[in-house]
Specification:
Strand order of the largest sheet of chain A: 1-2
Largest interface: A-B, 29 and 25 residues
Number of strands of chain A: 2
Number of domains of chain B: 3
Structural class of chain B: mainly alpha
Strand content of chain B: under 5%
Shape of chain A: globular
CATH architecture of the largest domain in chain B: Up-down Bundle
Largest sheet of chain A: 2 strands, antiparallel
Oligomer: heterodimer
CATH superfamily of the largest domain in chain B: NADH-ubiquinone/plastoquinone oxidoreductase chain 6, subunit NuoJ
Number of strands of chain B: 0
Radius of gyration of chain A: 21 Å
Shape of chain B: globular
Order of helices and strands of chain B: HHHHHH
Distance between the termini of chain A: 39 Å
Number of helices of chain B: 6
Radius of gyration of chain B: 20 Å
Order of helices and strands of chain A: HHHEEHHHHHHHH
Distance between the termini of chain B: 66 Å
Helix content of chain A: 55-70%
Strand content of chain A: under 5%
CATH topology of the largest domain in chain B: Four Helix Bundle (Hemerythrin (Met), subunit A)
């Protein structure tokens, strides 16, 4: 179908604007959720003073960060010092453009629930994630501070090591759906509800575990937050950053968390498909039926965000040698075994 | 559109390569190399090789260049002094490069009728087709390359191993 270029442009810009606004709001409220939940885990209240239940706290934090003085220390390498947070944030925001949020709905020939439907969406996601490391690496180096540099070195080593396990853990899913397009991967899982999700029916629970662990390491979250281990490195790679530049790193970290949640949802939990399959009768009108997939998607992503926070509140930090040996000697072999087992099973079933 | 994109990213690629040579700080050179590799990925994409483009970004711009910057940061390499270069490079290098470029241009221009062209999104390669080519038709080169890489890894381990007394 021919699509008018102007309608395409208009709708695309609109989609990008809507997704960015929702993502940044979600980032702000994930921070609040984290502070609240970690507070409860540690037997205290968390933020509760700004607005009802502390709901306006993200707004107050945002205003504070905007109004703070933007310090740039004297001996930093300025071009890279300024470029680094931009790289980190733009990579974090870019990767959300591949994510399909809902079923294949077209309006005037334009995909409604996805910014760009690419044939190799999964690979592009991996590519953007792997370029995102430069934000952290360059910020640490250009700060000219030994703590920042150590944080950046740790981050680079960690991300390179765990990227391998991350990529390998996804191969099982790709083998099953025979496509790198995220929409196809979800479609394979949407036949029988929960029973055909990759984590259960696809027998990818090991792949799911490896993916989740490697993704925690990729996003530098506890128990893998060595790049910003505050007891050893002050604040790690962003020690010298203040005001909006610090906020950009912060937003990048949480946006990456959300993207990881979206990808895990799409690859292992059947994306926007209902866990009950067709067992549930179609209730409500067409509007409810149109919103329901988005509801499932958001609910699953929320589950992953909660899991992130829960893990942070529970597990202590790895030691550096433990981190490396866990990645190389445990996750990578397990991921390879998972690939072998999945291919054997698929070959057996096909024959 | 196609041609415009080609000129933008081809230009970016050449500019990055020149910047790589002209910069005096190793980290700037490494960053220029990242620009070169990423724009090469876009050029692959323009030729319709989606998988190759993604692999280029993941492997080269992502993993290998991160290792480069890692080493530069670890050694904390400072600014390099600019040298005048060897006379042999001036005497042989520039004419050699000029001859190479003109030879390639002549070959491509004289055969331009027989050479095909590819368009962005002209054909969509499915993952299955790609694997068939990689693991069935080109199995031997693929396996030989992996053995080569394995040998390189073993060599690195042997070199880095601590001597036992």
């Amino acid at each position: 179908m021919e699509v008018s270029i102007w309608i395409f442009l208009l709708l695309s810009v609109l989609k990008v604007a809507v997704v960015t606004v929702i993502l940044l709001t979600a980032v702000a409220y994930t921070v609040l959720l984290e502070r609240k939940v970690v507070g409860r885990i540690q037997n205290r209240w968390g933020p509760s003073r700004v607005g009802p239940f502390g709901l306006l706290q993200p707004l107050a934090d945002g205003i504070k960060l905007f109004l703070k003085e933007d310090l740039i220390p004297e001996s930093v390498y300025r071009p890279l010092f300024i470029l680094a947070p931009i790289i980190a944030l733009s990579c974090a925001l870019m990767s959300i453009s591949m994510i399909p949020f809902g079923p294949d709905v077209h309006y005037k020939g334009v995909q409604l629930f996805q910014i760009s439907d690419v044939n190799i969406g999964l690979l592009i996601l991996l590519g953007i994630t792997s370029v995102g490391v430069y934000g952290i690496a360059l910020s640490g180096w250009s700060s000219n501070n030994k703590y920042s540099l150590l944080g950046a070195l740790r981050a680079s080593a960690q991300v390179i090591s765990y990227e391998l396990a991350l990529g390998l853990s996804l191969v099982g899913v790709v083998l099953r759906s025979q496509s790198l397009r995220l929409r196809d991967i979800v479609d394979v899982q949407s036949t029988h509800g929960m029973a055909s999700w990759n984590i259960f029916g696809g027998l990818q629970i090991i792949g799911f575990f490896v993916y989740l662990t490697a993704a925690y390491a990729e996003t530098n979250r506890t128990p893998f937050d060595l790049p910003e281990a505050e007891s050893e490195l002050t604040a790690g790679y962003h020690t010298e950053y203040s005001s909006m530049k610090f906020a950009m790193f912060f937003m990048a970290e949480y946006a990456n968390m959300i993207t990881v949640g979206c990808v895990a949802t799409l690859l292992f939990l059947g994306g926007w498909s209902s866990p009950f399959g067709h067992l549930l009768p179609d209730f409500g009108g067409p509007i409810v039926q149109a919103i329901l997939p988005i509801f499932w998607f958001v609910a699953k992503v929320f589950f992953f965000l909660f899991l992130y926070i829960w893990v942070r509140g529970t597990l202590p930090r790895f030691r550096y040698d433990q981190l490396m040996s866990f990645g190389w000697k445990f996750l990578v072999p397990v991921a390879i075994l998972n690939i072998i087992a999945t291919s054997l099973w698929l070959a057996f079933r096909a024959s | 559109m196609h041609l415009v994109l080609f000129f933008i990213f081809g230009g970016l690629c050449v500019a990055g390569a020149l910047n790589l040579l002209l910069q005096r700080h190793p980290i700037n050179s490494a960053l220029s190399l990242i620009v070169v590799m990423s724009s090469l990925a876009v050029l692959y994409l323009l030729l319709g090789a989606e998988f190759l483009a993604a692999a280029q970004v993941i492997v080269y711009s992502g993993a290998i260049m991160v290792l480069f910057t890692f080493v530069i940061m670890l050694l904390n390499a400072g600014r390099e002094d600019r040298t005048h270069g060897s006379k042999a490079a001036y005497a042989l290098g520039f004419p050699g490069a000029a001859i190479l470029v003109s030879l390639l241009a002549y070959i491509f221009l004289s055969n331009s009728r027989e050479l095909g062209s590819a368009e962005l999104g002209a054909y969509i390669v499915s993952t299955g087709d790609l694997s068939n080519v990689l693991f069935r038709d080109l199995l031997l080169p693929f396996e030989v390359t992996s053995v080569l890489i394995l040998v390189a890894i073993l060599g690195a381990v042997a070199l880095a191993r601590k001597e036992e007394n």
